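On clarity, I found the account of how folds are encoded harder to follow than it need be. Since the whole study asks how a given chain folds, the encoding of that fold should be made plain. For the editor and my fellow referees, an illustration may be useful. An entry of this sort, consisting of the sequence and the corresponding backbone structure tokens, reads as follows:

:::
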Amino acid sequence: MTVIHLKLHASQHAAVAPDQALGDRFAFHCSACGQCCNTPPLLTLAELLRFESRFIGALALRRVPRLIAGRQITLAGKQLTITADDETAQRTLFDTLLFAAPGGDSAGDALQIALQAVDYPSLQACPALDAQRLCSLHASGKPGACNVVPLDALQPDRLQHAVLASRSNDHDYLDAGCISAGTATTGHAPLTADGTVVDLHYHPALQQQRAALAADHAHWGKQVHAVLADALRDPAMWQRIPHDGFFNLSLVPVLAVLAASAPHRPARCLQYVDAQLQLIEHTLAAALARKHPADKPFTAQLRGYAQAYQALRPQLAHHAAAALRHSA
């Protein structure tokens, strides 16, 4: 699933002719072609644990631009002028789901700290796709991030038409023809209109995903952000965090925070680590069999994750055993 962010247009304050203004009516039709399932998904903590043997997990960092009233964005050849209400709505959402940049709001970005499934980029597919490139999790319940595609839970409802306009020019969506601007065409159902999400499935799905992200933000995100604070203040580290895509780290900081949160948590984290070590071993074996030259950097990354888990494992085992003795 391609990451979209809204890019500011160079002419930031020029008047926009009516025929060049971006409309807010978009329609959508999913044909289950699988083209947007070209990368592993973002996950909530509950999903990370649920899919411990399906997805290799990672900590994911991304810079998300803050919108400024009066500026313009070029999307699909049309112009969108950011209003004060747009800026306020985005700020309200960011305050709940994201973190301030090391330089504060003046830095122009917010920081997303997320959980993400990862896999070899050369595969260009989600690990949950079956042989027919259909989602194998669809019937049993796929991740919430997938349920809101092609919308973006990090942007307010009043800007989802801008998200759709941005995605409509992405080759994954352009080839599929699933996003339609203006009045709904045959087979497409209205998705956004009049600054709202009008589809009866997508509207509650967005609210549910935001609620899950807010819970993660409060439950473990703030503590992990505190752990990373010194590193994030390093300008060299901050520059490694992209706007497009994510900068990935081992999940060890997240697991350490979780393990300390409740007596039963070390055992659950230990179960997750063991499942991940098995999955990483299997994934590495498959990559070695493929012998794709572009896979080497990610192979090194996975081996680093495995080493970090092996280093954490004795500590988790010790605390899990202590909790078991205490409860006996």
Summary: Confidence is low (pLDDT under 50) at residues 7-13. Residues 250-328 form one domain.
